[in-house]
Amino acid sequence: MNLSTGIIGLPNVGKSTLFNTITNLKVEAANYPFATIEPNIGIVNVPDKRIDDLASIIKPEKTIYTTFKFVDIAGLVKGASKGEGLGNKFLQNIREVDALCHVIRCFENPDITHVSNKVDPIDDLLTINLELIYADLEVVNSRIQRIKNKAQSGDKEAKKESELLEKVINTLNNNQLVNTLDLNEEEKKILKSFNLLTAKPILYVANIDENNISNPLNNNHYKTLYEYLNGNNIIPISVKIENEISLLNEDEKKLFLEELGMNDSGLDRLIRAAYSMLGLETFFTYGKIEVRGWVFKKGMTAPEAAGAIHTDFTNKFIKAEIIKYEDMKEYRDEQKIKDLGKLKIVGKDYIVKDGDICLFRINK
To answer: pTM of the entire structure?
Structure first.
């Protein structure tokens, strides 16, 4: 499942450094606007302790985590929707991703320039939001003009689309993002075809001072942003600290996090949050050769999820044997789980759950 999250924000907020840290790719991270022009793409493992636990029980030859794609997109400036800075190129790169990770500067550093010459996280957030809104208004107004006559003539599908577009326009004109609209399933399906920028789910990353990592609310910039967003979809990260952590081995990393009073790194939380934001979940398979996580969309049936292993599995599906991760962790033996009646045999209507251990039976 090739879904991706684009890392966006104003220039010099820490986007490329964050991307370097996430992916261990050394892309350019310079102290001037537009150091990133072409989007950089990185594939990362999704941290999952459950895979480590299963591997400790099964002792396979290898373990394979689920993966997730991040795209580092060039910094945006005011007026991008009208071609300022990298303008349309930036906006087109955003259209090609499924979700957005908006990095917002919440640290003071006179040696790192800010495009507005001041650190103001709310203003930065609104600057980006408005450019996305302006770009979407252009798309929606153009679409309304194209279907106007059909809708007025009584064409049912055009009328439905026109009514939805009016909702969208009213939302955008009120400087609200389309992802705040409460839509039914039919409207969501129609909306998807427009590929609007503000319809994408957004996760906000507050790049804070390293001194505030243990208690982010001590950072006034972060506190202001947190309150503005009502604490929703926001993760505080010190990109500088995370970059240092990424250079350590696992033992050193664990010790460093303990010293900071943290159970896991901000990056691990970010990757998991981005994964979850797109409605992605994980099922497992295991054997002596490998323990492996497989990504699937929440709500998928067993045949649909089986397609993650091979597309043929969906059509050739017969049944699945399901063990809960919690049962394997507790009993540590497949035969014992069977004897206790905790192994389920399920059919085509079964909705796969996050953490299921699956063995799919298919027609040869």
So the answer is: 0.87
